[in-house]
Amino acid sequence: MILKNIHLGNFRNYESLDLEFHPKLNVFIGRNAQGKTNLLESIYFLALAKSHRTAKDKELIRFKQEEAFVNGSIRTAYSDLPLSISVSSKGKRAKVNHMEVARLSQYIGHLNVVLFAPEDLNIVKGSPQVRRKFINMECGQISKVYLNMLSGYQKVLVQKNNYLKQRNVDQVMIDVLNAQLAEYASLIILKRQQFIRTIEKYASRIHGDISNGNESLAVRYRPNIKFESEDEKSLELEIKSLLDDTLEKEIERGQALTGPHRDDISFYINDFDVQTYGSQGQQRTTALSVKLAELELIHEEIGEYPVLLLDDVLSELDETRQSHLLTSIRNRVQTFVTTTSISDINHTIMDEMQSFSIDDGK
Ligand code: ATP
Ligand code: MG
Fold first, then answer.
1. Which ligand approaches the C-alpha of residue 63 most closely?
2. pTM of the model as a whole
3. Residue 80, SS3?
4. What residue stretches are annotated with the RecF/RecN/SMC N-terminal domain (predicted)?
């Protein structure tokens, strides 16, 4: 999938902007606060009708203006397609092929993007909660069943915690809830296991590429419940009996102690834990590889690569890693990268790319 061009009107600090893009690699160069991230955000907005950094759409409208819009034309394996999205105080309007759509769900999905922003480093450095959110978002995109099971699990978990907080715990009631939790949990755990194996397959290959074969990345699921079963039904029974075993301790502590709400993932480079022992560059490469694995998942899903948005990733990667990243990726995936200095860009990749200098929204 290729984004051919973009036209912005009153979007963030851009009054009006027209750009034609390179099919492989596009680099946005500019000092701080000139509009590089805003430009990536506009592509993200064109794809998903929302921003990656604010839930308040009106922040996208240029100061003192009424309406912001982004138009762009994409080329897919099948056709060229104009897309258009605008936001004003009256809400959002979206057009596909110049025709306004009634619902945003009819709009989203034409342009697919994967974005890597500096915050994504938290997939490696942050708390288990960040990683669970990452798994839930990714698994949820691929599997509707997963989302249903997760929301079922979370609802029952809240109920169980409420019961455990009461002075006289109703064990019969907890038993009923545990049975429900075990049912949801078994599917959640198996889906996560499957997803993490797929991520590992792709991420380790990408990490190997970027590090020029010097590092081998492993991604390991660390389920809170140590289980042996491989099928849903026997896993459910296994979980149920584990939950029964922990009940006494849970009553003592007044909260649910075991289950997939305490799961985590670990990353290893050449067998050491990246979160604890990894350098900045290794942590960044790991987070990046895991995120780039998403490109392959989407490719598996829809048969086409999305476009890739990379915000501020180059500064912490050395020249070898940078050039491996950008050369290996740009041949498959149209890529948009921001940087504060052209000297960040390795000279060996200067052919087959287009650079844009950004200065105060121009
Ligand atoms: P850095 O290198 O620091 O990440 P950047 O080039 O990515 O910088 P952006 O975040 O794209 O910077 O742009 C920030 C600029 O956009 C700031 O000067 C900010 O004031 C301006 N800006 C943000 N929102 C709006 C808006 N709604 N209207 C006008 N200007 C805006
Ligand atoms: Mg920025």
1. 1
2. 0.88
3. strand
4. 3-341
